[in-house]
Amino acid sequence: MTTGKITIQDIAQLAGVSKTTVSRVLNQRPDVNPETRERILQIMDQQGFFPSLAASGLAGGRSRLIGALVSVIHWPLIPEIMRGIAEVIDQSPYELVLYSVNAGNDQKDYSDVIERILATKLTAGILAIYPGQSAAHLAELCREGFPLVMFDDQINPPEDISWVGADQKAGAYAATRHLLQQGHRRIAHIQGPLQFQVSLDRYQGYCDALAEAGIEVEPELVLQGDFMPTGGKECTTQLLQALEKRPTAIFAASDLMAYGVLSTITEYGLRVPEDIAVIGYDDIPFSRHAQPALTTVRQPLHEMGKRSIELLLQMIDPPEIKVRPWNHKSALRLQDAMAAPVLPASPVHIKLSTSLVVRASCGATQHSL
């Protein structure tokens, strides 16, 4: 064949059959001679022919497209999450469609966008990544039987929706406890926005570690940031200017805020970790290259991405019919087998462990806990 997109007509010519016969094979119609069917499928594989996913899905009664709904596409955690998702999708008969609904407002309800996506009927299920205030609407879709998994959280995440997240409280507890073990007693905490459940959980982990050490939380040492470097700078400036006795350590609820903490401490002529120790949260790639290298809590973002899409695929397809890698015969078997999504009897909640990555910014020997 000449180079270019292979069409159904091309396949028909190579097989010596009509275009209608090829369409019947693609739609798994019974009125095709078995030998003819086998010859057509073999030619498709040889020529690298792939029918339109959307068209073939609609023809077969089920889409082979998975929708990933991302509300904050520029968030630095997203690439690692998507890498885990892509690894699983690549070994499945599905393709991923990314829906970005970022509008610079994490508190906006994107229910109308979700409804428009569902109206196309092109996606077999949705993975909602940091869904914002749309979580309640997503829970309603689950109750109606639509396959959906939520990646991470909002405040009071619905209990009747399947989700994958990390143990944020344990991660914050480990970070604060590590600072306590280094001899710090005056530890400040810069929270994330309080509409996020992760902010509340990380604050609770901080409080639990202090309580265990017999230290009361000092309200003046707890400030609310915005997960961004500017929030870290503003809160650190307040801690250094307004307090008569500055903290000896600062635990920021995100690495991005920790970057703002590091730069502000330097601007005030102080040193990290000699004057003030710093710990962040997330372990995004740049953190190991910060000056000094940032101690932080690592979220298993790659694994979280994998587990979330695996959970969604289990809802859409019974495990026994998963076929890898994709080819025409397996796709047709899949099309025949998946009459309806198999939703779990009860929502599945997966909480993965975090780990503390110790680097220079807290003044301890570098290692992972």
From TrEMBL:
The keyword Transcription applies. Residues 6-60 form the HTH lacI-type domain. InterPro entries: HTH_LacI, LacI/GalR-like_sensor, Lambda_DNA-bd_dom_sf, Peripla_BP_I. It comes from the Bacteria. Pfam families: LacI, Peripla_BP_3. GO terms for molecular function: DNA-binding transcription factor activity; transcription cis-regulatory region binding. The keyword Transcription applies. Gene3D superfamilies: 3.40.50.2300, lambda repressor-like DNA-binding domains. Keywords: DNA-binding, Transcription, Transcription regulation. PANTHER family: HTH-TYPE TRANSCRIPTIONAL REGULATOR GALS, LACI-RELATED TRANSCRIPTIONAL REPRESSOR. This is LacI family transcriptional regulator. It comes from Dictyobacter vulcani. The gene is lacI_3.
